[in-house]
Amino acid sequence: MINKRASLGLHVITHIARTPSHRTITADALASLTDVSLSYIEGILKDAREQGLIRATRGPGGGYQLSVPLNELSVWDVVLCFNPANEVLKNSHSSNESSCTYLIAQQACQLEKEFLQAYPFAELVPKNSESPASKPTKSLAMNFKPLPQRVRPVAPNSIFDLSNFLNLQAA
């Protein structure tokens, strides 16, 4: 079954997929869009990066982009990235009721898997909608803050100039 982590992973990958191919979205922006802590989002992004769903760009203007074409992804591919092992309990009890429950749970997981494999991920991404927090990757000069004014230090040049420096400071 889809757990909370896989559900949040679907939301995160949907936000990443909404950004145009020439833009990136930061982990901080994803955290604010999903109302989840930054460290938890970074864990989800790490799993997605290890599975090859997204790629990361470092540095100013960096962020995350989808690395797999949107039309090649199914919802199951994304869910499997965040929920690799089904959370069905192992058949540890030998009673008849527990074995029947185990078989029903296995069949439900199989039906869910087949349905999600047939459901394209592109249908979850709204068309012509851009994520509000995406950043352009090319024109980085507009995203920089202005540099502070340089202040020249006032100090003596050598030990022999120390008395002149102290006299200037006293005056």
As laid out across the biggest beta sheet, the strand order is: 1-4
**Total beta strands:** 4
CATH superfamily: Winged helix-like DNA-binding domain superfamily/Winged helix DNA-binding domain
Largest sheet: 2 strands, antiparallel
Q: What is the ordering of alpha helices and beta strands?
A: HEHHEEHHEH
- Average pLDDT confidence is 79
Unreliable residue stretches: 137-141
Helical run tally: 6
Could you say which structural class the secondary elements and strand pairing correspond to? mainly alpha
By CATH, the topology is Arc Repressor Mutant, subunit A
Describe the structure.
With 171 residues, the protein is mostly helical. It has a single domain (4-139), classed as Arc Repressor Mutant, subunit A. Helix content is 44%, strand content 8%. It has six helices and four strands. It has a two-stranded antiparallel ribbon with strand order 1-4. It has a two-stranded antiparallel ribbon with strand order 2-3. Strand 2 and strand 3 form a beta hairpin. The longest helix has 23 residues, at 96-118. It is elongated. The termini are far apart. The model is unreliable at 137-141 (pLDDT under 50).
Summarize the structure.
By secondary structure, the protein is mainly alpha-helical. It contains six helices and four strands, in the order H-E-H-H-E-E-H-H-E-H. It has one domain (4-139): Orthogonal Bundle (Arc Repressor Mutant, subunit A).
